[in-house]
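Data availability (excerpt). The following record was deposited with the supplementary files.
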Amino acid sequence: MKGGYFIHPKRRGHQSNSDPPAEGKAVPLVSLREGEVGVVAYTVGGRGLVRRLAEMGLTPGVKVKVLRKGIFRGPFQIEVRGVALALGHGVASRVFVRPLRLKHDG
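Predicted structure:
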């Protein structure tokens, strides 16, 4: 496998891409509001978590829409590749996205 996992300089674990993230561009998925869309930049976690997220379709470059945020750090409902998924708050906080500004026709 080319590239492998990148070890985040500030956290233990692995990332899903081999290049360090650009500073100040990616934010945790948990910071998006309901209805907002972002593009997955990278994920942080152990190999098992990164693999599981990839199997769910959460890979770099994929659009993610927040459908619903649970209260009190509850589960996140997101849409990835046309499929609705639920992630726990802790897992969602390990997915970093670049928020998209959607243009509205009007």
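Summary of structural features: The longest strand covers residues 37-45.
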